[in-house]
Every structure is written in C-alpha cells, then in structure tokens.
C-alpha cells in the first residue's frame, strides 16, 4: 500500500492553488512517513507496530494540543495545518489503522474485506482534500471515496508481482477461486485464460468505481476540479494499458508513457470543457476515447 500511488497518474499538482500546496505537502508527508514505517527498512512486524503506536500517540498529542513525543517537526507542521485549515484528525487515524492491518494481513477473503481496507488506506486522503477546499459534503465524500478506492485497486493490479514478493495478494480470494487462479500461478507469473478472465473482472470493477465517482471533478470548481479530471482519466488510461497488454502485469509494471499522458491531457480537456464525464475524444492511436 503506497500513499503516493497517485504519482503513477498524471496528477498535475502544479494546478493546485498556491494556498493549498503547503497543507497538501504536509498531508502527503504524513502518509509517506506511515508508509515507510509499515513497509521500508528491516524492522520486524513487532517493531513496525510499536512505531505505528508511537505515531498514533503523536496524533493524540496534536488532538490535545501537546508536543508530539515522536516526529516533533512533522507533527508541529500537521498541528498548524489542522488549525489553519480546520481539518479533522480521523482520516489520519484511519490511515494508521490501515497500515497496522497491512503489516499482518496478506490475503483478503472477499471484495467487502478489501473495500473496508481501501476505506482506511485510500479514502482518507480524498476526505482531507475536500475539507481543504471546504467541499466535504456527503455527495462529494461518496464520489471521492469511489475515485480513491478505484485508484487503490488499480495500483494493486499494477503491483501484483511486487506485492507477491512481499507476501501479499490483494485480489480477493473469492474472485481468484471463481477464476481458478491459485497462489502458485501468481508466483509463476503465468498468464492464461483463467488469469485474463480474473483480471478483466478486476479491471471492470475498478473502472465502474472510477466512473461512478467522476462527476465529482465537474462539481469541484477551479484548478482543483481540473486536476481531479486528470486523476480520473489517468486511472482510466491505466486500466486501458493493462487491457492492451493482455493483462500481463508480470513482465513489466504497467505505467503511463509520454504518449499516454498526451491521451489523458486531451481527455481531461474534453471532460472539463464539455462538462461531461464521457466526452469522446480521438486518441493519438486513432481510436475513440
């Protein structure tokens, strides 16, 4: 689980209003620090849990207006942003909960378990962004959840081999059993009809979520809304790349190349100008968008 996963998508952070760049930077710094605790280095699982407990104590200190016992500079910045932008702390607690789970949970029984994980691992960032722009309405939060969860699921599909090397599989067990794809097949990186059927199902699920949340980008005004359009189309384009590669994510991790960025930019502009999620734009491959 990587909180900077959106770097795989054309998120034009330069589009962010200047006033948001510092608080957004602090939010991502917090998420990056949590990721380092949970995944980087040679610490044991017990040591990682202890460090996350310390991080939770830091959040408690921010909530109580006290000096944090760990990462004092980071928590001082966070406290300042929380006060100035009136941000809730619960999304940060949710992130800690997700990273704690990620240390020991290596399999997900079904989609419901996985979506609950995404609710805490991905959706908090979207909630914080909406609070930053004073747009955290129930409708906006629901659409943000759909976009953020879709991005998380797309990252899981990109990272099947890397996650396997860490001992994790994020594709739900129920889906894999229906498609008759075993752990051994993932370990071998074998792409056959069963694997393609499984991945087609997972891609369709992620695409449906992304499209369901996409109207948020047209409700949010200004440059933030334009950036959201690029996030939506970056995610959708990544799904196309996975499909175009025959669902083989083992030989090379799917990424957006320069040509893909051009497609995303065209589609972003078309969506923003037409005010329609499904605005058709010819791609540079001479296919319809």
TrEMBL record:
Q: Which domain of life is it from?
A: Bacteria
MF terms from GO for this chain are: geranylgeranyl diphosphate synthase activity; squalene synthase [NAD(P)H] activity
EC number(s) given by UniProt: 2.5.1.21
Name the Gene Ontology biological process terms: terpenoid biosynthetic process
- Where is the chain membrane-spanning? none
Q: What InterPro entries does UniProt report for this protein, alphabetically? A: HSQ_synthase_HpnC, Isoprenoid_synthase_dom_sf, Squ/phyt_synthse, Trans_IPPS_HH
A UniProt-annotated Pfam family? SQS_PSY
Annotated keywords: Transferase
Q: What is this protein called in UniProt?
A: Squalene synthase HpnC
Q: Which organism is it from?
A: Paraburkholderia tagetis
Q: What is the lineage of its organism?
A: Bacteria, Pseudomonadati, Pseudomonadota, Betaproteobacteria, Burkholderiales
